[in-house]
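Let us work through a complete example step by step.
Step 1: write down the sequence.
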Amino acid sequence: MSERIIDVAAGLILRPDGQLLLGQRPEGKPWSGWWELPGGKLEPGETVLEALSRELQEEIGIEVTQAVPWVTYVHSYPQTTVRLAFCRVTAWNGEPRGLENQRLEWVDPRNAASVGELLPATLPPLRWLQLPETYGISSIGGLAGVPEFLQRLERALARGLKLVQLREPDWPDGVGATSLRDVMQSVVKLCHAAGARLLINSVHPAAWWRMADGVHLRWSDAEALRTRPELPEGALVAVSTHDNNQVVHARDMGADFAVLGAVLETPSHPGQPGLGWDGFVAANRDAGLPVYALGGQSIDTLSEAQRHGAHGIAGIRGLI
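Step 2: predict the structure and record it as tokens.
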């Protein structure tokens, strides 16, 4: 591995229909013929967004008008190591065109390999794009709350919620505990009927993780693991985190995403101010995987969260 790390800003240029722009590396450059995300190296004194705007102007002739930081990811090639600051670009002036004799193609991120060989560092962000921007968390409490919760969940799914966590650490013991399995199965059916995925918090039996779409690990459970749990192909692994070391651990163990918080004060913890957005940015540094902001979040805070590098938001009251 090269000791020198090259800082690069890379743009995921996304049209409203979800299509993503890829460029083919021209002849004469390393990895010529391979496809990549547009962008380039940071110059001294530049911020990531400044470098991205300059590179996209020089490389494909567009003026960026709306972009947010996303995931910073370190990748080692045989001859060099790059720190890629991926940014989502959602508005620009001009029509992209190859100013360096490179081919450009709009692709469906789920089928991006149809254009040809993709640079290895391009693969992770294509996978991360499959994660929705909102992540709803249950808070049923007990059997009496089930009918109302299922109604609220149905409404949230109808509004477009695509990722849900079943998290009921205070479910009553005894007969009530076995009833939660039945509730879980009802929630799985509702989610799948709406094209949504359900993760099971690790406070619940591991057998349930496989009946749903994966597991959300409490930090105390994730801390004891060096690698992700063995689950069926396509299942997701998420981790609750509270600082940068925990986020890095989630990345190193192979989690698909992390949830970081609490960012803002929440009704359940009045008087506790949380990390704040500056604290979130610091804890999310060089995360290497998508991170959702948790704590005081709702649709109203989504754009603020993404301006500070969050993939999206996670919440209980604000989303379900």
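Step 3: interpret the result. The chain has a mean pLDDT of 94.
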